[in-house]
Design a protein that fits this description.
The chain is mainly alpha-helical. The chain is 61% helix and 5% strand.
Protein backbone atom coordinates (compact mmCIF):
# COMPACT_ATOMS: atom_id res chain seq x y z
CA UNK A 1 0.00 0.00 0.00
CA UNK A 2 2.86 2.40 0.83
CA UNK A 3 4.51 1.56 -2.50
CA UNK A 4 1.23 2.23 -4.33
CA UNK A 5 0.90 5.62 -2.62
CA UNK A 6 4.43 6.65 -3.66
CA UNK A 7 3.65 5.50 -7.20
CA UNK A 8 0.49 7.63 -7.48
CA UNK A 9 2.24 10.64 -5.98
CA UNK A 10 5.02 10.32 -8.52
CA UNK A 11 2.57 10.12 -11.43
CA UNK A 12 0.77 13.24 -10.28
CA UNK A 13 4.07 15.11 -9.92
CA UNK A 14 5.13 13.97 -13.37
CA UNK A 15 1.83 15.18 -14.93
CA UNK A 16 2.11 18.55 -13.18
CA UNK A 17 5.67 19.03 -14.38
CA UNK A 18 4.70 18.00 -17.89
CA UNK A 19 1.79 20.53 -17.95
CA UNK A 20 4.06 23.25 -16.61
CA UNK A 21 6.68 22.43 -19.25
CA UNK A 22 4.02 22.65 -21.98
CA UNK A 23 2.83 26.07 -20.78
CA UNK A 24 6.47 27.25 -20.58
CA UNK A 25 7.13 25.98 -24.08
CA UNK A 26 3.98 27.71 -25.36
CA UNK A 27 4.97 31.02 -23.79
CA UNK A 28 8.49 30.67 -25.20
CA UNK A 29 7.22 29.93 -28.71
CA UNK A 30 4.70 32.80 -28.54
CA UNK A 31 7.35 35.25 -27.34
CA UNK A 32 9.65 34.07 -30.11
CA UNK A 33 6.93 34.59 -32.70
CA UNK A 34 6.22 38.09 -31.42
CA UNK A 35 9.90 39.12 -31.59
CA UNK A 36 10.53 37.51 -34.97
CA UNK A 37 10.91 39.41 -38.20
CA UNK A 38 8.05 39.49 -40.67
CA UNK A 39 8.05 39.87 -44.39
CA UNK A 40 5.60 41.92 -46.33
CA UNK A 41 4.20 41.07 -49.74
CA UNK A 42 7.19 42.62 -51.50
CA UNK A 43 9.70 40.37 -49.73
CA UNK A 44 11.28 43.16 -47.65
CA UNK A 45 12.10 42.08 -44.11
CA UNK A 46 10.39 44.14 -41.46
CA UNK A 47 11.41 44.31 -37.83
CA UNK A 48 8.23 43.66 -35.87
CA UNK A 49 9.63 43.28 -32.40
CA UNK A 50 6.83 43.87 -29.91
CA UNK A 51 6.80 44.36 -26.18
CA UNK A 52 3.31 42.86 -25.79
CA UNK A 53 2.98 40.35 -23.02
CA UNK A 54 1.89 36.80 -23.57
CA UNK A 55 -1.31 37.35 -21.55
CA UNK A 56 -2.45 39.94 -24.08
CA UNK A 57 -2.42 37.31 -26.86
CA UNK A 58 -2.93 33.93 -25.22
CA UNK A 59 -5.81 33.99 -22.74
CA UNK A 60 -4.91 32.67 -19.32
CA UNK A 61 -6.73 29.85 -17.62
CA UNK A 62 -8.42 32.27 -15.20
CA UNK A 63 -9.79 34.35 -18.08
CA UNK A 64 -11.15 31.25 -19.82
CA UNK A 65 -12.85 30.11 -16.64
CA UNK A 66 -14.31 33.61 -16.11
CA UNK A 67 -15.72 33.68 -19.62
CA UNK A 68 -17.34 30.31 -19.07
CA UNK A 69 -18.85 31.40 -15.74
CA UNK A 70 -20.12 34.76 -17.06
CA UNK A 71 -21.91 34.10 -20.34
CA UNK A 72 -23.43 37.04 -22.25
CA UNK A 73 -27.07 37.33 -21.30
CA UNK A 74 -28.15 39.95 -23.85
CA UNK A 75 -29.71 39.33 -27.24
CA UNK A 76 -27.50 38.15 -30.06
CA UNK A 77 -27.71 39.99 -33.38
CA UNK A 78 -26.71 38.46 -36.65
CA UNK A 79 -23.39 39.87 -37.90
CA UNK A 80 -23.48 42.66 -35.33
CA UNK A 81 -22.67 43.31 -31.69
CA UNK A 82 -25.56 43.97 -29.30
CA UNK A 83 -26.26 47.68 -28.69
CA UNK A 84 -25.13 49.23 -25.43
CA UNK A 85 -28.53 50.86 -24.94
CA UNK A 86 -31.96 50.44 -26.46
CA UNK A 87 -33.84 53.44 -27.94
CA UNK A 88 -36.83 54.46 -25.87
CA UNK A 89 -40.10 55.92 -27.05
CA UNK A 90 -40.49 59.65 -27.63
CA UNK A 91 -41.35 61.74 -24.60
CA UNK A 92 -44.30 63.12 -26.53
CA UNK A 93 -45.49 59.63 -27.47
CA UNK A 94 -44.65 57.22 -24.63
CA UNK A 95 -47.66 55.02 -25.48
CA UNK A 96 -46.67 54.52 -29.11
CA UNK A 97 -47.38 50.74 -29.26
CA UNK A 98 -50.91 51.25 -27.95
CA UNK A 99 -51.43 54.33 -30.13
CA UNK A 100 -50.31 52.46 -33.22
CA UNK A 101 -52.76 49.66 -32.44
CA UNK A 102 -55.63 52.14 -32.12
CA UNK A 103 -54.42 53.90 -35.27
CA UNK A 104 -54.60 50.62 -37.22
CA UNK A 105 -58.11 50.04 -35.86
CA UNK A 106 -59.19 53.52 -36.97
CA UNK A 107 -57.66 52.93 -40.41
CA UNK A 108 -59.63 49.71 -40.77
CA UNK A 109 -62.84 51.41 -39.63
CA UNK A 110 -62.22 54.22 -42.08
CA UNK A 111 -61.56 51.81 -44.97
CA UNK A 112 -64.72 49.79 -44.40
CA UNK A 113 -67.15 52.39 -42.99
CA UNK A 114 -66.30 56.09 -43.01
CA UNK A 115 -64.61 56.43 -46.41
CA UNK A 116 -67.39 54.56 -48.28
CA UNK A 117 -70.00 56.66 -46.47
CA UNK A 118 -68.13 59.86 -47.32
CA UNK A 119 -67.84 58.85 -50.96
CA UNK A 120 -71.55 58.05 -51.08
CA UNK A 121 -72.38 61.36 -49.42
CA UNK A 122 -70.26 63.22 -51.93
CA UNK A 123 -71.81 61.31 -54.83
CA UNK A 124 -75.37 62.01 -53.67
CA UNK A 125 -74.88 65.66 -52.70
CA UNK A 126 -74.17 68.18 -55.45
CA UNK A 127 -71.36 70.64 -54.76
CA UNK A 128 -73.62 73.66 -54.00
CA UNK A 129 -75.57 71.63 -51.48
CA UNK A 130 -72.40 70.33 -49.86
CA UNK A 131 -71.18 73.91 -49.50
CA UNK A 132 -74.47 74.93 -47.92
CA UNK A 133 -74.38 72.08 -45.40
CA UNK A 134 -70.77 72.87 -44.52
CA UNK A 135 -71.68 76.53 -43.99
CA UNK A 136 -74.52 75.61 -41.63
CA UNK A 137 -72.24 73.47 -39.45
CA UNK A 138 -69.56 76.15 -39.55
CA UNK A 139 -72.11 78.70 -38.33
CA UNK A 140 -73.13 76.40 -35.47
CA UNK A 141 -69.47 75.95 -34.56
CA UNK A 142 -69.04 79.72 -34.17
CA UNK A 143 -71.06 79.55 -30.93
CA UNK A 144 -68.51 77.50 -28.91
CA UNK A 145 -65.73 79.45 -30.67
CA UNK A 146 -67.21 82.66 -29.23
CA UNK A 147 -67.34 81.13 -25.73
CA UNK A 148 -63.71 79.98 -25.87
CA UNK A 149 -62.59 83.40 -27.11
CA UNK A 150 -64.23 84.90 -24.03
CA UNK A 151 -62.51 82.34 -21.77
CA UNK A 152 -59.17 83.29 -23.37
CA UNK A 153 -59.91 86.99 -22.81
CA UNK A 154 -59.78 87.62 -26.55
CA UNK A 155 -62.71 90.01 -26.54
CA UNK A 156 -62.12 91.33 -30.06
CA UNK A 157 -62.18 87.83 -31.53
CA UNK A 158 -65.20 86.98 -29.39
CA UNK A 159 -67.07 89.98 -30.79
CA UNK A 160 -66.16 88.97 -34.34
CA UNK A 161 -67.29 85.36 -33.84
CA UNK A 162 -70.52 86.50 -32.17
CA UNK A 163 -71.26 88.86 -35.06
CA UNK A 164 -70.66 86.02 -37.50
CA UNK A 165 -73.37 83.98 -35.79
CA UNK A 166 -75.83 86.89 -35.90
CA UNK A 167 -75.17 87.83 -39.52
CA UNK A 168 -75.13 84.30 -40.94
CA UNK A 169 -78.13 83.14 -38.90
CA UNK A 170 -80.34 86.07 -39.86
CA UNK A 171 -79.23 87.26 -43.29
CA UNK A 172 -77.51 84.01 -44.33
CA UNK A 173 -80.56 81.83 -43.72
CA UNK A 174 -79.26 79.91 -40.67
CA UNK A 175 -75.79 79.86 -42.16
CA UNK A 176 -76.56 78.46 -45.58
CA UNK A 177 -74.76 81.48 -47.01
CA UNK A 178 -71.56 82.70 -45.37
CA UNK A 179 -72.27 86.41 -45.64
CA UNK A 180 -70.15 87.19 -42.60
CA UNK A 181 -66.94 86.32 -44.45
CA UNK A 182 -68.07 88.48 -47.37
CA UNK A 183 -68.37 91.54 -45.13
CA UNK A 184 -64.95 90.97 -43.51
CA UNK A 185 -65.84 89.10 -40.33
CA UNK A 186 -62.95 86.62 -39.98
CA UNK A 187 -63.57 82.99 -39.09
CA UNK A 188 -61.71 81.79 -35.98
CA UNK A 189 -60.94 78.29 -34.73
CA UNK A 190 -61.03 77.86 -30.95
CA UNK A 191 -61.93 74.99 -28.64
CA UNK A 192 -61.55 74.22 -24.96
CA UNK A 193 -58.27 72.37 -25.50
CA UNK A 194 -56.81 75.58 -26.90
CA UNK A 195 -58.26 77.49 -23.97
CA UNK A 196 -56.46 75.20 -21.53
CA UNK A 197 -53.25 75.56 -23.52
CA UNK A 198 -53.64 79.34 -23.57
CA UNK A 199 -53.74 79.34 -19.76
CA UNK A 200 -50.61 77.20 -19.49
CA UNK A 201 -51.90 73.62 -19.34
CA UNK A 202 -49.36 71.37 -21.06
CA UNK A 203 -50.46 69.14 -23.90
CA UNK A 204 -49.25 65.95 -22.26
CA UNK A 205 -48.52 62.71 -24.10
CA UNK A 206 -49.87 62.08 -27.56
CA UNK A 207 -52.97 59.90 -27.60
CA UNK A 208 -54.92 58.26 -30.41
CA UNK A 209 -58.62 57.89 -29.60
CA UNK A 210 -60.83 55.23 -31.18
CA UNK A 211 -62.86 56.76 -34.03
CA UNK A 212 -61.84 60.33 -33.08
CA UNK A 213 -58.19 59.93 -34.07
CA UNK A 214 -55.20 62.06 -32.98
CA UNK A 215 -55.43 63.82 -29.65
CA UNK A 216 -53.53 64.38 -26.42
CA UNK A 217 -54.27 64.04 -22.72
CA UNK A 218 -55.28 67.71 -22.51
CA UNK A 219 -57.36 67.71 -25.70
CA UNK A 220 -59.04 64.40 -24.90
CA UNK A 221 -60.34 65.74 -21.59
CA UNK A 222 -61.35 69.03 -23.21
CA UNK A 223 -63.59 67.17 -25.66
CA UNK A 224 -66.11 66.69 -22.84
CA UNK A 225 -66.45 70.45 -22.41
CA UNK A 226 -66.61 70.93 -26.17
CA UNK A 227 -69.48 68.44 -26.33
CA UNK A 228 -71.29 70.23 -23.50
CA UNK A 229 -71.06 73.52 -25.42
CA UNK A 230 -71.97 72.03 -28.82
CA UNK A 231 -75.48 73.19 -29.86
CA UNK A 232 -76.02 70.00 -31.90
CA UNK A 233 -75.25 67.78 -28.92
CA UNK A 234 -77.21 69.88 -26.42
CA UNK A 235 -80.12 70.38 -28.78
CA UNK A 236 -80.45 66.64 -29.38
CA UNK A 237 -81.92 66.29 -25.87
CA UNK A 238 -84.86 68.57 -26.75
CA UNK A 239 -85.93 67.06 -30.06
CA UNK A 240 -87.01 63.66 -31.30
CA UNK A 241 -84.44 60.94 -30.43
CA UNK A 242 -83.45 60.31 -34.05
CA UNK A 243 -82.85 63.96 -35.03
CA UNK A 244 -79.69 64.50 -32.95
CA UNK A 245 -77.87 61.38 -34.18
CA UNK A 246 -78.96 62.11 -37.77
CA UNK A 247 -77.54 65.64 -37.64
CA UNK A 248 -74.36 64.38 -35.96
CA UNK A 249 -73.91 61.69 -38.60
CA UNK A 250 -74.46 64.25 -41.36
CA UNK A 251 -71.80 66.50 -39.86
CA UNK A 252 -69.35 63.59 -39.57
CA UNK A 253 -70.00 62.57 -43.20
CA UNK A 254 -69.56 66.16 -44.37
CA UNK A 255 -66.29 66.49 -42.45
CA UNK A 256 -64.95 63.19 -43.79
CA UNK A 257 -65.99 64.06 -47.34
CA UNK A 258 -63.95 67.24 -47.09
CA UNK A 259 -60.83 65.15 -46.42
CA UNK A 260 -61.17 62.94 -49.48
CA UNK A 261 -59.20 65.35 -51.65
CA UNK A 262 -56.18 65.41 -49.33
CA UNK A 263 -55.92 61.74 -48.38
CA UNK A 264 -54.27 60.72 -51.67
CA UNK A 265 -51.51 63.28 -51.11
CA UNK A 266 -51.08 62.01 -47.56
CA UNK A 267 -50.78 58.39 -48.67
CA UNK A 268 -48.19 59.27 -51.30
CA UNK A 269 -46.12 61.66 -49.16
CA UNK A 270 -45.91 59.81 -45.85
CA UNK A 271 -43.44 56.95 -45.45
CA UNK A 272 -44.89 56.30 -42.00
CA UNK A 273 -48.48 57.54 -41.95
CA UNK A 274 -48.77 57.22 -38.18
CA UNK A 275 -45.69 59.36 -37.54
CA UNK A 276 -46.75 61.90 -40.17
CA UNK A 277 -50.19 62.27 -38.57
CA UNK A 278 -48.70 62.60 -35.09
CA UNK A 279 -46.24 65.33 -36.04
CA UNK A 280 -48.84 67.20 -38.11
CA UNK A 281 -51.37 67.12 -35.28
CA UNK A 282 -48.93 68.26 -32.59
CA UNK A 283 -47.58 71.10 -34.73
CA UNK A 284 -51.04 72.27 -35.72
CA UNK A 285 -52.30 72.27 -32.15
CA UNK A 286 -49.23 74.16 -31.00
CA UNK A 287 -49.80 76.80 -33.67
CA UNK A 288 -53.48 77.12 -32.75
CA UNK A 289 -52.75 77.57 -29.05
CA UNK A 290 -50.26 80.35 -29.80
CA UNK A 291 -52.30 81.90 -32.64
CA UNK A 292 -49.75 81.00 -35.30
CA UNK A 293 -46.73 82.33 -33.39
CA UNK A 294 -45.49 79.49 -31.14
CA UNK A 295 -42.31 79.92 -29.09
CA UNK A 296 -39.29 77.75 -29.73
CA UNK A 297 -39.87 74.40 -27.98
CA UNK A 298 -37.38 73.15 -25.41
CA UNK A 299 -36.20 69.56 -25.52
CA UNK A 300 -37.07 68.89 -21.88
CA UNK A 301 -40.58 70.35 -22.07
CA UNK A 302 -43.86 69.01 -23.41
CA UNK A 303 -45.35 70.75 -26.39
CA UNK A 304 -48.28 73.05 -25.68
Amino acid sequence: MVFLGFLLTGCATTNKNTTADKITDTNTITSANINSSASDDTGVLLNTSTNASVSDIVPTTDNLIKEQREPFEGPVFKNAAPPATYPGFSKRDPWEPMNRAVFRFNESADDYVFRPVAKGYRWLMPDPLQTAVGNVFSNINDIPVTLNNLLQLKFGNAATSGMRVIVNTTFGLVGIFDLASDVGLEKHDEDFGQTLGYHGVASGPYLVLPFFGPSSIRDAGARLIDAASDPVFVGSFFVAPFIGPAIGASRAADTRAGLLKSEKTLDEAALDKYEFMREAYLQRRRNLVHDGNPPQPKEDEDND
